[in-house]
Amino acid sequence: MLALLHTILLHRSTGKFHYKKEGTYSIGTVGTLDIDCDFIDFTFVRVSSEELDRVIRKAVSEFKDALSNSGSDGMGQISLEFYQKKKSRWPFSDECIPWEVWSIKVNVVNLANEQERQICREKVGEKLGEKVINVVEVINRHEYLPKMPTQSEVDNVFDTSLKDVQPYLYKITYQITDSLGTSVSTTMRRLIKDTLAL
Amino acid sequence: MDSDLSPQDKKDLDKFIKFFALKTVQVIVQARLGEKICTRSSSSPTGSDWFNLAIKDIPEVTHEAKKALAGQLPGIGRSMCVEISLKTSEGDSMELETWCLEMNEKCDKDIKVSYTVYNRLSVLLKSLLAITRVTPAYKLSRKQGHDYVILYRIYFGEVQLSGLGEGFQTVRVGVVGTPVGTVTLSCAYRTNLAFMSNRQFERSAPIMGIIVDHFVDPPCSSQRPTHMGQPCNYRAPDEEDGGTFAGVQDSQEVCTTSFSTSPPSQLYTSRLSYQPAALAGAAELCHPAANPNQVIHRSVSSSFMLLTDPYGDDDGLSQSAEGRRDEGRRSVSPSDPVESLSAFTRKVGAFVNKPSTQITAASLDLPFAAFAPRGLDSEENDPMVINMLTDIFCASLHSQGSEGSGQQDDFVMVDFRPAFSKDDLLPMDLGTFYREFQNPPQLASLSLHISSQSMADDLDSLPEKLRVYEKNIDEFDAFVDMLQ
């Protein structure tokens, strides 16, 4: 269980700082908050928005439950997708076009005793640090960002449902694969579902 | 270059860069204050919320930054650097990181100043926020307190990375292209954090006859490498913090094994008692009361034992004959820390009084000088032991590198001359030191008339002790489980 909590916190930390891309475009300011991870010796910065925090936590705990239900040696992947909505003509509904997708692969690890856990904690802390640096590197490549929308098109680019910050439109999805590696079938299923969902 | 840029844009760009520099310094310094930063998001911006980020402005820091900039802006060849260093309560300092805001010549003419550059600078600041929590100095700064403090220094001009030691790592926070150049923010941080304890050590090593730090330092730093600036164990008896306890757990483990060849350990006790000022704990060793505080004091002696453990092992072998004379009583004692402690306390008296008449003012400096004037005894020890001991003490003394006699035969009385030693300073002579070690004085407990008395006492108290320990067996089991 603690191993799962590990992964979940690993999640929480990486999930949170993804929100570097929220814009405020002349509306307001974004405050920041330092969060210490409970089980890992790591501190990350997140946006100080309780609503956003709640949304992320909910998604992450769903993922965690799914992982724990799948069995002891599960693997999973959680994806954070930033998308843009594009209004299409009737009768089709709006298209969601992702412009950036972050995927985190998670492996559940069972740790036998306190010593192993301690070693794992330190390793995970270091890895997290490296991942933060990677994320920052990628973000700083400034590859693509949606154009700043006009007033009427704000909802197509930004998530205006939160009252204090305004991240880009995002979606969190996850999938669990058990250790037998049935991911191929799940991928196929997903592909078909996605094409039909248009 | 500037002809493509409108005057308004140029002004804006300069303003952005200036405030970016100021905000960068704020972020870095605030990240090293040792506290968690918390700012609120608000939907109505104020004038000081540059880059749409709520970063508080500490006035002192702004003042320092403005002073360093002196009206200039970071430009090509003029970098703004923030140096983070650690300073211990003893005055040692070490550079930990250098954050550099540089500009190079690569221009991005097509970029829009007021919008894209601004947003990218904002993203860069956010990245800086994240990266400042990732470097090793962050963890150090969160733990700063009375042992050490984190200091910052802002300077302008050439980047100086020489103080970061070997193998420092660089992480690039990000770049933003502007029409006048590319702004780059990077951090170079030291990876060799162990340098700290070495430096403390180097400072004290050349002087012979140094205070107890000299000998307790190596085991101390090997036990607790992450406790930066933690002075040696001679302060440990006074401080009952968690760190000391953690060290004690380990040393207790070591203690029990080293006690199995315990006779030489009594020698160490006597040495400890010679450090009057530094080792306050040693005096406490004389108290037979077994309370939890004793455990801390023992960490002093046990770490001492770490240093000289090989000697202990070997000497035990050669003295096994004597040990057997005591009917293996000593083999019983090591398994129990408290009992060994009482064994300790009993033996201290044997040495505290004996050489006191021979202590001169000069030899008080050298812990083992008291042994020097004494003549050779007829006891013979394994010369191999001497070699090993020589190696250990030579390493710590940083002085002579002699290998001792090199004779491998047992029971041969050799009058050896250690290489590289000088004969003029008699009390400090390495040769006499070796000789004393070769022929330690007869242990009080081994002399028959005392041993019979003490043995009887010991045997009497044994059943009682066993009863007490059996009563507490649950505690010990819980302790063992906890360790696993």
UniProtKB/TrEMBL annotation, chain A:
<dbReference type="GO" id="GO:1990316">
    <property type="term" value="C:Atg1/ULK1 kinase complex"/>
</dbReference>
<dbReference type="InterPro" id="IPR012445">
    <property type="entry name" value="ATG101"/>
</dbReference>
<comment type="similarity">
    <text>Belongs to the ATG101 family.</text>
</comment>
<dbReference type="GO" id="GO:0000045">
    <property type="term" value="P:autophagosome assembly"/>
</dbReference>
<protein>
    <recommendedName>
        <fullName>Autophagy-related protein 101</fullName>
    </recommendedName>
</protein>
<dbReference type="GO" id="GO:0000407">
    <property type="term" value="C:phagophore assembly site"/>
</dbReference>
<keyword id="KW-0072">Autophagy</keyword>
<dbReference type="GO" id="GO:0019901">
    <property type="term" value="F:protein kinase binding"/>
</dbReference>
<dbReference type="Pfam" id="PF07855">
    <property type="entry name" value="ATG101"/>
</dbReference>
Automatic annotation (TrEMBL), chain B:
<dbReference type="InterPro" id="IPR040182">
    <property type="entry name" value="ATG13"/>
</dbReference>
<dbReference type="InterPro" id="IPR018731">
    <property type="entry name" value="Atg13_N"/>
</dbReference>
<dbReference type="GO" id="GO:0005829">
    <property type="term" value="C:cytosol"/>
</dbReference>
<dbReference type="GO" id="GO:0034727">
    <property type="term" value="P:piecemeal microautophagy of the nucleus"/>
</dbReference>
<dbReference type="GO" id="GO:0000407">
    <property type="term" value="C:phagophore assembly site"/>
</dbReference>
<dbReference type="GO" id="GO:1990316">
    <property type="term" value="C:Atg1/ULK1 kinase complex"/>
</dbReference>
<dbReference type="Pfam" id="PF10033">
    <property type="entry name" value="ATG13"/>
</dbReference>
<dbReference type="GO" id="GO:0000423">
    <property type="term" value="P:mitophagy"/>
</dbReference>
<comment type="similarity">
    <text>Belongs to the ATG13 family. Metazoan subfamily.</text>
</comment>
<dbReference type="GO" id="GO:0042127">
    <property type="term" value="P:regulation of cell population proliferation"/>
</dbReference>
<keyword id="KW-0963">Cytoplasm</keyword>
<dbReference type="GO" id="GO:0010506">
    <property type="term" value="P:regulation of autophagy"/>
</dbReference>
<protein>
    <recommendedName>
        <fullName>Autophagy-related protein 13</fullName>
    </recommendedName>
</protein>
<keyword id="KW-0072">Autophagy</keyword>
<dbReference type="GO" id="GO:0034497">
    <property type="term" value="P:protein localization to phagophore assembly site"/>
</dbReference>
<feature type="region of interest" description="Disordered">
    <location>
        <begin position="311"/>
        <end position="338"/>
    </location>
</feature>
<dbReference type="InterPro" id="IPR036570">
    <property type="entry name" value="HORMA_dom_sf"/>
</dbReference>
<feature type="domain" description="Autophagy-related protein 13 N-terminal">
    <location>
        <begin position="91"/>
        <end position="195"/>
    </location>
</feature>
